[in-house]
Amino acid sequence: MKLGIIGDIHGAWDSHDTRFFNTAGYDGLLLTGDLPRFVGALPVARQLAELTPPAYMIPGNHDATGLVQLYAEMSGHTRLTRLTALGMPERVAHLAETLGPITLGGYSLHALGDNLGLVMARPHAMGGDKLYFADYLRRVYGVTDLASSRDRLCRLIDAAPRDLIVLAHNGPAGLGAAPNAPFGCDFDPKRGDFGDPDLAEALTYARETGRRVLGTVAGHMHHRSKDGRHWRRTYHRDTHDTLHINAARVPRIEAEGSRRHHVVLDLDQGEARAQTRWVDAAGAVVSAEDWR
Ligand SMILES: [Fe+2]
Ligand SMILES: [Fe+2]
Hints:
- The protein is α/β, with parallel strands linked by helices.
- It has a single domain (2-248), classed as 4-Layer Sandwich (Purple Acid Phosphatase, chain A, domain 2), CATH 3.60.21.10.
- It contains eight helices and 14 strands.
- It has helices at residues 15-23, 42-48, 67-75, 78-85, 88-98, 134-141, 146-158, 197-208; strands spanning 2-6, 28-31, 55-57, 103-104, 108-113, 116-120, 163-170, 212-219, 235-237, 243-246, 253-254, 259-268, 271-279, 285-291.
- The strands form two sheets. Strands 1, 2, 3, 4, 11, 12, 13 and 14 form an eight-stranded mixed sheet that branches. A six-stranded mixed sheet has the order 5-6-7-8-10-9, covered by helices on one side.
- Helix 3 (67-75) packs antiparallel against helix 4 (78-85).
- It is globular, with a radius of gyration of 18 Å.
- The protein starts with a strand and ends with a strand.
- One fe (ii) ion is lined by residues 8, 10, 34, 60, 219-220, 222, 248.
């Protein structure tokens, strides 16, 4: 099975991308979310709705949220956080509708193949050890803190087949604390490992209950650090042989449209291999780098 992975889009999408993914022959597409440059996911969502392969998207912190809401979440302004969360369930539903055939998931389990499950993790994750968008998560999912988020993920794993892929907006904790680690904090290096602890604990649970987590696919922590000095590592294979991928190359379109980024995830008999691939506007491969 070959999956095409599309990292944080942040406005970098056009009809060439749609045509490419509709003809590239992937068995499925995984999207890590963050559609708009800052806010307003619907224009990109309308274009993505034209995709024809089975596609799954986890919403990011920029999807179905607003600028004031992001400010409130990041600054910890409780009243403003509550106020700006009020319309979020409706905004998420509108985004899901606009995405047409694409499955907008979150705390959900899907079948990728006969014996391969796709767990979609906490939606709108924003990194670190804080539960962002807590008001929305409580009202819609009954999740009140990181422990109940972990428990919610574990119940999905209970229902999952042996082999699993996880799609998250931000990846799991435990993959390193340096600014160039897949989910290390670059904008404030003192904060170290900025991966999601609830997801990391759910992965441990998955292994303890006999699952093979072939890979995790996420984004959010963009490849280039805020100060422009570091390039983040895209891949990390852990001691359990799980391949972790951070696909958030932002901007994903470079050189006036002549280079477009995605990742190919190849799953063969329980083994995950990946390749970073750049294609031009006509869909021809301009560079491809295997990672193993
Ligand atoms: Fe992003
Ligand atoms: Fe993000």
